[in-house]
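## retry 2 of 3
previous attempt timed out at serialization; input unchanged, resubmitting
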Amino acid sequence: MKGARAGSDDALLTTVNLSTGYDGVCVVGSVDLEVRRGQIVTLIGPNGAGKSTVLKTLAGQLAALGGVAYLDGRRLDKLTVGEQALLRAMLLTDRPRTELLTCEDVVQMGRHPHTGRMGVLGEADFAVVEDAMRLLDVCDLRNCDFMRISDGQRQRVLLARAVCQDPQLLILDEPTSYLDIRYQIELLGVLRHLAKERGLGIIMSLHELSLARQVSDWLVCIKDGAVMAQGSPTQIVTCEVIDRLFDLEPGTFDPLTGNICLPVGHAGTKASHGRASLGPCGAEERSCDVGLQHKE
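## retry succeeded, writing output
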């Protein structure tokens, strides 16, 4: 995948030497990546490395500072807003402010690129809305005020809106934020279903390495303003790569469990008599892979 070019086999999104940033200042440069139909590509790396900046550029919220991105074989910056909306949907960290809209109203907004100038939904549109709400398990929220539900519930409603848009490419920035472990697992299972069963291309960022390893087909490591490495989860989730990506001491990361192993002893001191394995919640524990399921 490294050095991918537009027009390669079943490529949906391709970037060539893409540079992105704010106010003319480059945050991440020389990004060459590819997302194929039916594939999940995940950006990983330290906080502030520029993962969200890359995704905002691919989502059209930031103009590229250099290089080019291709969407469905066409230059992204040459597509109209309407053409982009038919090809791409996104769920970024920004939260829309709504007034007196129900959750179903918000999901229905995903159908607007497919309606005429009047924005009237037809029978087929309502069927797509219902399918998206069922897939994300938000049917029971349909009549709730969108601004009066929890952050986790809003996250699922917004993803239902993105799915309802019926895109070819889905862009997600930290989609598991605000979700408890049950909904993290279910949401990532839904994403895998969308990729494998419906053929969507998905590019997203995740903090949880264990989840990224399980759900992703390809991992892209962002660090120090560049792509440090990219490859399959087997190639990337290793002690060597993860320790270098996050500036960890050698042996701190356990690739078998995805846990961080800290010296046993007082905080801030090294101990020679063993290591404690810290799970996602910081508790000493043993971990196991959790199967990802999707709603049928």
